[in-house]
Amino acid sequence: xxxxxxxxxxxxxxxxxxxxxxxxxxxxxxxxxxxxxxxxxxxxxxxxxxxxxxxxxxxxxxxxxxxxxxxxxxxxxxxxxxxxxxxxxxxxxxxxxxxxxxxxxxxxxxxxxxxxxxxxxxxxxxxxxxxxxxxxxxxxxxxxxxxxxxxxxxxxxxxxxxxxxxxxxxxxxxxxxxxxxxxxxxxxxxxxxxxxxxxxxxxxxxxxxxxxxxxxxxxxxxxxxxxxxxxxxxxxxxxxxxxxxxxxxxxxxxxxxxxxxxxxxxxxxxxxxxxxxxxxxxxxxxxxxxxxxxxxxxxxxxxxxxxxxxxxxxxxxxxxxxxxxxxxxxxxxxxxxxxxxxxxxxxxxxxxxxxxxxxxxx
Length: 362
Ligand code: MG
What we know:
By secondary structure, this protein is an alpha/beta fold. It has 12 helices and 13 strands. Helix 5 (147-159) runs parallel beside helix 6, helix 6 runs parallel beside helix 7 (204-214) and helix 9 (254-262) packs parallel to helix 10 (279-291).
């Protein structure tokens, strides 16, 4: 039987694997929220979610006190129904980051169960488009790195066979940002993708100005130039530049993605499976983007996003930021600049349970 008999939550702190600073913040630690769901057939699904340093205990409390108890006795196959029940029961705190992160931990556990029961990998259960996806590198592009370090990182990524690099922008002056981008472009040549990311640090006017200053670098996208709730600002920017606009890592509802797409304010969609509330809504956003002929390049969480990008026809890139090595038994396999979607049944992440136990803080 497929009835949920137990559901538990735990919190694991992970040190960042490298210093990661952008125009607004630093990645302090990865608070990883795990949800384990057991069923009467003897299966256990593991789901997870995360923060980059604050709020993890709040997600755990919401799950433990309010959300997990309502799963008991439900049929674990009813993934949509359970998602809707949890969402509607927390209506007063939805749409909200804490609730979405909690929902994602539940939903990914249910998808793990679904895949385990079918003995299929996630990339096939979620759609099954292709078994490998191109990678681009973010680890060599952080804002605290020097221009020489950016160039060295980009050259290394190119020699690895990866499709491109992402560089943080938002230095105090336009000249400094433009100089860093120009140095990387001159080093890697024309046939290599360069993306930039401002992490919501700019006003619309400043983003329009910087986009103009960056125009001759040939950028693949300009990511989070403005605060994520400023849809009209993004629409204005999009009309002023030929650089594609990328958003999504700070969006917590399907409806806000619809607004961006309808207003032609985003050309690359970066839905984060944890922040949108799990695989169930992630796929809806991806398919909606396909209807607008827009590509999906999700934010962070490459260990699960590789399977989701592989599931859909409009997936373009997976972002290389390894962060789970301390608590997993293996890594994503990379061949010729492409990440291979795991073929093992379930989410495809081999958790190291001993390491998780060692790092458990709640
Ligand atoms: Mg970003």
